Amino acid sequence: MEVFIQQLSMMSGTAVLWFVLGFVFGLVYRQALRVIARGRPRGAAMNIGKSDRRFRALLGVLLLVWAIETAWSPSLLFFSGFCFFETMFSWCGLYAILGRNACPIA
Q1: Are 31 and 86 in contact (CB under 8 A)?
Q2: How far from the centroid of its chain's Cα atoms is residue 54's Cα?
Q3: Every domain of the chain and the residues it spans
Q4: Residue 81 and residue 97: Cα distance in Å, rounded?
Q5: Exposed site from 1, 18, 19, 30, fewest CB < 10 Å?
Q6: Does residue 103 come out as left (phi exceeding 0), alpha (psi in the -120 to 50 range) or beta?
Q7: In 24-45, which positions are buried (b, 16+ CB within 10 angstroms) versus exposed (e)?
Q8: How far is 37 from 86, CA to CA, in rounded Å?
Q9: Is the dihedral of CA 32, 79, 22, 86 positive or negative?
Q10: Structure confidence by residue, pLDDT tens digits, 57-84
């Protein structure tokens, strides 16, 4: 039983690490696109509306639960953290690249 608890605590620490890495990747990605899009009007501004934010938050929760319930998949945890990043900052890198803006506040 003690070995199981140690393994579980080690896996949860790794899970938090992958989740945080996904979030940090989002921050670095946004900063890189901000530098690349310097001078463009919508380079790193808010470009996700309320419905997109809700969808990404739900997707982030689903990916997180799926990762925890299965095998603590690092890729699922990473993308879950990235979805939460996009939700918190109302910003999507793909939308920025494509010039799409779903945010009603322009």
Answers
A1: no
A2: 13
A3: 2-98
A4: 21
A5: 1
A6: beta
A7: eebeebbeebeeebeeeeebbb
A8: 18
A9: positive
A10: 999 999 988 888 887 778 888 888 888 8
DSSP string, the chain: -HHHHHHHHHHHHHHHHHHHHHHHHHHHHHHHHHHHTTTSTTSSS----HHHHHHHHHHHHHHHHHHHHTT--HHHHHHHHHHHHHHHHT--HHHHHHT----S--
Tokens of 27: 């921050």
